[in-house]
Amino acid sequence: MPITVSSEIRRDLHVARVLLDSAPLNIIDLDQCDELLEALQGIRDDDEARVVIIQGEGHEFCSGTDIAEHTPEKMPDLLPRFHACLEAILSLDAIVIAAIEGRCLGGGLELAMACDRILVDEEATLGLPEIKIGCYPPAGLIQVLARSHPGSAVRMVCSGEIYPAKEFPHLGIIDELVPAGTMEEAIDTELDPYQELSPAILGFTARQFHRRAQDQWAKHLKELEAVYLEGIVTHEDSREGVEAFLEKRAPRWARRQGLVGPDDLAF
Question: What pLDDT score does 231 carry?
Fold first, then answer.
């Protein structure tokens, strides 16, 4: 199973772990979106876990959604389903922690930024490289603006740069930088203050944070998603970027500068 869920009890604290397991890079395709969504909805419906940890198998977090599915035919199914997974995180009455080792790229970083807390091994790598294949991260735009400052958000999304965690320049994205190979110890430290608290009040309080975040999703995400599906996926540079990535060559971008077509030089 690419997505597995396990549970444990720390004193009176119920903890659920969601493991992404699609080696080697834990890339998420449409089927895995369905499994992840089902796992998150199951945790929500059980209503026991007050902390949820999301991590990847094999010391790799997630290198994003499947680029082979970034096509006009498949993205209208994949993108809303992936966004539904992010929204499902916000439906949990629990503190959600991303425990990142290895690569955390593109949709993988969007998945992490949907969580409340982000713990990152210092040898991990992070970035939103979508623009390098002629795309942009719809959810990532909202998330980076919420977690960092506008100039940093523009640099991160528009450069597509990938950084080693210990050199990551964007303040607010990483909550805890963890010494290499000590993620489990870091998780223990992270969980410690929650273990003596009322599970009910902890869950209720997490719900308030998530509802504020849901307000931002409702305000912006559907529009960004629609623009992506209507303007980006069908654009010749987006198609070229995906093909170039899959063929392991440099992309050949169109010479014209129009955003969508010859008459769309500006909105």
Answer: 87
Read off the tokens for 219.
Answer: 């305000």
Q: What stretches of the chain adopt beta strand conformation (E)?
A: 3-10, 13-20, 51-56, 95-100, 103-105, 117-121, 125-127, 162-164, 176-178
Is 198 buried (19+), middle (13-18) or exposed (0-12) by CB count in 10 A?
Answer: exposed
User: What letter does residue 62 receive in the DSSP assignment?
Assistant: B
- In the predicted model, what is the mean pLDDT of residues 206-221? 91
**Buried b / exposed e along 220-242 (16+ C-beta atoms within 10 A):** ebeebbeebbeebbebebbbbbb
Task: Give residue-wise pLDDT tens across range 62-109.
Answer: 999 999 999 999 999 999 999 999 999 999 999 999 999 999 999 999
Beta-sheet pairing, 125-127 with 162-164: antiparallel
Vertex 83 angle, CA 206 and 16, to 5°? 45
The amino acid at residue 146 is A
Whole-angstrom Cα distance, residue 112 to residue 100?
A: 8
Residue 71 has what DSSP assignment?
S
Catalytic residues: 110, 130
* Residue tagged 């945790």 (tokens): 43
36 near 85, Cβ under 8 Å? yes
Rg of the chain (C-alpha set): 19
Length of the chain: 267
pLDDT 10s digits, 111-120 = 999 999 999 9
Buried b (16+ CB within 10 A) or exposed e, 33-45: bebbbebbeebbe
DSSP letter string, 8-39:
EEETTEEEEEEEE--TTTT-B-HHHHHHHHHH
